[in-house]
Structure formats: structure tokens, C-alpha cells
């Protein structure tokens, strides 16, 4: 049975017409699903009895099951989503003073094999379907205190979003739909390891958009390829060239994420090369001090080294922030997601 949470409003509209119903019912259905968030077709009271029966016959309204929920001392919540086939993914809810952000996964595991990321140790098991991506958002909302909502979505969880391109786009069409969950595209960030054709393809999309973050992590081709095998195909020079060609709005910037690994990427020679590399690009650098894990070989940089690296960039006019590590005590920090799932890889 097809999951209705995987369908965009246009797809629902086409189905309605095909089945002999009025197309305006699609807007009503979306309102029930995402505004009222009902989980039973019988509760969609402004739909005809025949339509409700046909919907129940054709579609399911199942969401991922809510598995273990771990709450960090800093207010971060990591929860496990149990999928229909028994696979598991992890999603992270970040609570701030004035808003909430959800770190969303797009794959079970990941094929990019980044050396500093725990998810990479799983390999790619499978892509998530749209309803499994959207379902993370709906589940997260049930964990929020009454009166609170999600403001930001960051596609920085398990998996490479652009490696699951079609399902990513369908999910965004639902998440950004004003009759759906109605997120502003400016509050949605897509983080990629640098799949060049995927970046170009996404930027050419006319129905969806999002802020772009590039996981850089190396300032030379050799250094980047050692940490990120994907760089062997998606060469640094070509990636930076593609970023230069992206048409950006006046106040829009590309975020470059840079993981600081002690003795590997945190020296000021690398900082100098990073400044030169991004020269002429409307860029923002987000430094990510490495979050240590016993299964990964790297060490976190000293705080004073992080400050020195950031100051070097700031002094040369490059906008630069340091990502505050959240949820380390529950393995919810950047690079630490690795829900145990069936090991059968793609």
C-alpha cells in the first residue's frame, strides 16, 4: 500500500482526478495531514464518505516508529526512528532559547565513506522514502513541549542528501508547501559532501529551494581526498568552480563546513589556504571541532587552536562561526550518528 506521506499535493491532485474526484480535495487532504495532523482518514470530516473510503483503500498513513529517545544534559534530544522493514535511523532535535532545529537523515547509512564520520562505518544500506524523511519531522513535533514548533531543518543527519536526490526533492515539496508543513526555504539547509552535478541540478530546481552547505574539510585536493573519498571523483577545483558559478541572491551565502581535526586540518597554514581557496565567493565558514568517538582515529583540536583558526579567517574578512557541539553525551553531535541497522549494504 502506498504511503500518503510520500505524495506531494500535485500527486494527490492527479490521483483525485484519475479516480473521478474534484482536484481541490488535495488541499483539504494536505490540511488534515499537516496542519491538523490526523492519523485516520475517518477524521477528515470535510471530505465525502466515498473519498475517505477510497483513500483508506489506497493509502496508508503509517509513520516511522519512535524508538529510543535520549536527552542530553544540554537539552538536545536524539531519537531513533524504526522503519517498517526494521531498519533504524537517528534524528536530532536541537532546542535553543527562541527556536527549535531538526537535524534530518536522508539515508540508512551513507556511501560517502568520510573518515571522520561514524555514519560512514555503516556503509549505505538504503535510501529513505519521502514519508520516512517527512515522518522524522512529524515525530519530532510530538516530542516538543506544548506551544513550541520547529523553525529550522538541517539535512545534516545520516546520509548524503544529494545521493537520494528524487526522494529529497519530493520531501522538500511537502515540507515547503504552505498547505503542508510550511517551512521557509531560508530556514532549510542542505548539507552535501560536494556532489557537483547534484549541486548544479538542485540549484536549477524551480519548485523547491534551500540554503546550501558544502562539507569541505580539506584545503587541497590531496588533503580532501584523504579524508573524503568522494573527492577523488568530485575534484576540489571543480567543486569550488561550480560554487563560484551559482547565482546567489544579494544576501545569500554558501556555507562551507570545515571539520577541525587535531594535527590534521587545524593548522594556520590550512587557514591561509582556506582564505585563498574561497576568495571571491560569497562564503561563510562554519568550523566544526571534531567530536571524538572511540571508533574513529582522530582527536579534537585544542580550544585555543580553534580560536586561532577562526580569528585568522575573521581578520582576513571571511565570515566565520564555530559550531557549538551539542549532544555529545548521547552521541548526537555532528558525525556521531550511527543507529544500528541491518548490515546488508547496497
Automatic annotation (TrEMBL):
One of its GO terms (cellular component) is cytoplasm. Keywords: 4Fe-4S, Cytoplasm, Disulfide bond, Iron, Iron-sulfur, Metal-binding, Methyltransferase, rRNA processing, S-adenosyl-L-methionine, Transferase, tRNA processing. Its EC number is 2.1.1.192. The active site is at 90 (proton acceptor), 334 (s-methylcysteine intermediate). It is found in: Cytoplasm. It catalyses: adenosine(37) in tRNA + 2 reduced [2Fe-2S]-[ferredoxin] + 2 S-adenosyl-L-methionine = 2-methyladenosine(37) in tRNA + 5'-deoxyadenosine + L-methionine + 2 oxidized [2Fe-2S]-[ferredoxin] + S-adenosyl-L-homocysteine; adenosine(2503) in 23S rRNA + 2 reduced [2Fe-2S]-[ferredoxin] + 2 S-adenosyl-L-methionine = 2-methyladenosine(2503) in 23S rRNA + 5'-deoxyadenosine + L-methionine + 2 oxidized [2Fe-2S]-[ferredoxin] + S-adenosyl-L-homocysteine. It holds the Pfam family RlmN_N. Its main location: cytoplasm. [4Fe-4S] cluster binds at residues 110, 114, 117. One of its GO terms (molecular function) is tRNA (adenine(37)-C2)-methyltransferase activity. InterPro entries: Aldolase_TIM (IPR013785), Methyltransferase_A (IPR040072), RlmN_N (IPR048641), RNA_MTrfase_RlmN (IPR027492), rRNA_lsu_MTrfase_RlmN/Cfr (IPR004383), rSAM (IPR007197), rSAM_sf (IPR058240). Belongs to the radical SAM superfamily. RlmN family. Reaction proceeds by a ping-pong mechanism involving intermediate methylation of a conserved cysteine residue. PANTHER family: 23S RRNA METHYLTRANSFERASE, RADICAL SAM CORE DOMAIN-CONTAINING PROTEIN. This is Dual-specificity RNA methyltransferase RlmN. It comes from Candidatus Lambdaproteobacteria bacterium RIFOXYD2_FULL_56_26.
